[in-house]
Each structure stands twice: as C-alpha cells, then as structure tokens.
Design a protein that fits this description.
Elements lengths: L1 H16 L4 H35 L2 H8 L2 H33 L1 H16 L7 H32 L9 H24 L4 H10 L1 H13 L6 H26 L1
Helix pairs in contact: 1-9, 1-10, 2-4, 2-10, 4-6, 4-7, 5-6, 5-7, 5-10, 6-7, 7-8, 7-9, 7-10, 9-10
Length: 251
C-alpha cells in the first residue's frame, strides 16, 4: 500500500518531466464535468430516497410514537450511514461508466508510461489497442457486478445498530480495491496475463490496489483540480508501482 501511495508522487514528477499534460488535462476536464453534474443530482435525490424509504417502511412513524432520544440518535446515525453507502455505490457506478468510456486513453497512457521507462518508441498498434479496450470493458463490467453484490451485502449489515457504523469504511475499502484493480490490470494485459491470472495477481497484492484507489478518492477532496488530475494520475501511478514488481519477477 505504501508503494502505491508513493507512486502518485512519482507519477507527478514523471508527468512533469515527460510533458504528458495533454493526456491528463483533456480527459480530466471531461471527468470533472461529469462528476460535478453527477454529484449535483445525487445530492438532490439521495435525501428524498432515504426519506421515502423511512416513511414507506413505517420506521419514522414508529420512532415518532416512541419518542425515544436514544432510538432517534440511532436512526439519525443509520440515516447518515445509509447516505454514505449510497454515495459510495453511486460513485462506483459512475466510476465504471467512466472507465468504460476512457478505456482507450487509459490503455494507451499506461503503455506510453512503460515505454518511456524502458526508453522505447511506442508505435501505434490498433489491434492491440482494441484488445486492451475490450479487456478493460470486460473487466470493468465483471468488477462492477461483483462490487454491486458486496455493496448490497454491506448495505444489509448497515442496518445492524453499532456494528453497522463500520460499514462505510468497509464499503470504501472495497471501492478502493476494485478501482485500483482496474488501473493495475492495464499493465497485466500488456504482459500477456489472462484475466484469471490478473485476478490472482491483484488478489495477492491487495495493498497495491487499495493504495491506488485510496489516493484516487482522496484527490477528490480537492475540488476541480483534484477531479481533473485523479483519473490519469491513477493510471500512471499504477503503472509505475507495477513496473518494479514485474522486473523482479522477470529476474
């Protein structure tokens, strides 16, 4: 995980040194616009959904009749936790949509990063790029389905008082893992690893995936600039963190 986090600082220096800004700014602006619009609509609909759910189940009416401050506190905490989990789930769906749209760029940027490290030219290969795109899309769909299963399981756990308070952190770890997985897989594909081999490898290096995804989300705390930088920085950082491991395996 420490290697993955340090890789973001290396990625910043790498991007500056090799003048890769055009591969960062253009998709980053598109991502930032989509993210801003998506969060605007989420903030307007999530609260309404939670209120509708509490009224439909009769929970709010039942709590009002009991007039218990302790149960009211638990209900407030539960509402907040549910909102956080819904936010993570929404962000997950948005993320996979963007990964599918941005698959061509991310595959190329990862390949270009490794070519620069090795001092090689990067001839354009349409058939290989198409394979990378299809693999990225297939993996995004696969990870999206599995993460949905885990998120709904976590959502059920969130209903349990006290224990449910830990579920947002658990949901965030799952989210970070699957995002980092998608970033690391671009390197796995380039080294001719099958999807099954990629799944096994990343599962054996969970810290790399979680660390990559964690910094990606932390960057969103910096409005606009962080949103623009986060996607492409994650790709470059994942490639830089994977390269020493691949070299050690070759040796």
């Amino acid at each position: 995980m420490i290697i993955a986090i340090q890789a973001y600082f290396l990625a910043h220096r790498f991007i500056k040194e090799h003048k890769l800004w055009k591969w960062i700014i253009i998709p980053g602006i598109l991502y930032a616009i989509l993210f801003g619009v998506g969060m605007y609509y989420f903030s307007h609909t999530s609260g309404q959904f939670i209120e509708w759910l509490s009224l439909k189940t009769g929970l709010k009416t039942w709590l009002d009749k009991l007039n218990s401050s302790f149960l009211g506190f638990l209900f407030t905490m539960g509402t907040l936790l549910l909102w956080l989990i819904l936010l993570i789930f929404y962000f997950s769906l948005f993320k996979y949509l963007f990964l599918i749209i941005g698959a061509p760029l991310f595959a190329y940027l990862s390949e270009k990063t490794e070519a620069i490290i090795e001092g090689k030219d990067l001839p354009f290969n349409f058939s290989q790029l198409l394979k990378d795109i299809l693999r990225g899309i297939n993996l995004s769909v696969r990870n999206g389905l599995w993460q949905t299963v885990y998120t709904f399981s976590i959502l059920i756990l969130s209903m349990i008082p006290i224990l449910g308070w830990l579920t947002p952190a658990l949901a965030l770890l799952v989210e970070c893992y699957y995002y980092g997985f998608s970033m690391l897989d671009y390197s796995m594909e380039r080294h001719k690893k099958t999807p099954a081999e990629s799944i096994y490898y990343v599962a054996s290096h969970k810290g790399l995936a979680i660390g990559n995804g964690l910094v990606f989300y932390i960057m969103h705390l910096l409005p606009i600039l962080g949103w623009i930088m986060a996607p492409a920085y994650a790709v470059v950082a994942a490639t830089l963190s994977m390269y020493p491991l691949k070299q050690s395996e070759i040796k």
